[in-house]
Amino acid sequence: MYSIQSHDPRHPANLICSLSNQFFHKEWCLGTGGAMSIEDETSNCIYVTPSGVQKELMKPKDLYVLTKGKEKNQYDPVYTPPLKISDCSPLFLACHEHKQAKAVIHTHSQNAVLITLLYDKEFNISNMEQIKAMPSGAVDSTTGKQINLSFHDNLCIPIIDNKPHEHDLLESLEKVFNEYPNACAVLVRRHGLFVWGPTVDKAKIYNESIDYLLGLAIKMDQLNIPM
Ligand SMILES: [Zn+2]
To answer: Annotated catalytic, 71?
Structure first.
């Protein structure tokens, strides 16, 4: 059974609010931009941010709570605030459904927007220590744990073109799932970044690491330092 109010700071509704506040202060989610969803393993419900709410002021009662419906790709709201659901919700649900994501973070980070003006179809980076925080897509057969990239490995983030409405990006996102099965993120040109992970903490770590690497790449470009 879902709940919207909890004293547990790790409750999905509280996590979305505290992370949204953090991301606002990092200037990743200004002016109501950005969005987030978290799948709660206990209730199997997905918590999704509403549209048009200032991220630093968001409250648990503002969030939508969805549960899986009978049909494939169908999700029914079990808690509906008097607000519109994020236009990103079809993209979030696709990440939960097809990538087994437990959390999806969408920001309008300036680093993410700028990098899509420097690169065309993909952003690639290697030989950077922070890459080691990113997943390779491979899993250790004995421990079952995911293997991260090594220093010399290449991190590839696909870039898709923006559309007038965020939900229109679904087709391009599904294409990314097929063409880049190991990707845990996608950049949207002149728009921002979507990152998904197998836990909320992992999604947060990936999001921070990617933004850091994008920032480095932009500065290297400004200083004419080759990648
Ligand atoms: Zn957006």
So the answer is: no
145: CA distance to ligand 1 center in Å?
31
CA 170/CA 155 separation, integer angstroms: 23
CA distance 150 to 143: 18
CA of 150 to the centre of ligand 1 (A): 31
**Cross-strand pairs, 105:** 36, 195
Q: pLDDT tens for residues 161-208? A: 999 999 999 999 999 999 999 999 999 999 999 999 999 999 999 999
Q: Which fold has domain 12-222?
A: L-fuculose-1-phosphate Aldolase (3.40.225)
What pLDDT, in 10s, does the model give residues 147-162?
Answer: 999 999 999 999 999 9
Residue 164: the pLDDT is 95
What residues does each domain of the chain span? 12-222
Model pLDDT for residues 44-83, shown as the tens digit of each residue: 899 999 999 999 999 999 999 999 888 877 899 999 999 9
Distance 226 CA to ligand 1 centre (A): 30
Instruction: For residue 25, give Cα distances in angstroms to 29, 108, 173, 227.
Output: 8, 13, 28, 29
Cα of 140 from ligand 1 centre, angstroms: 34
Name the residue among 213, 110, 205 with its Cα closest to residue 157: 213
Q: Which residues of 18-41 are buried (b: 16+ CB within 10 A; e: fewer)?
A: ebbeebbeeebbbebbbbbbbbbe
Interval between CA 111 and ligand 1 midpoint (Å): 14
From the candidates 97, 122, 129, 174, which is the catalytic residue?
129
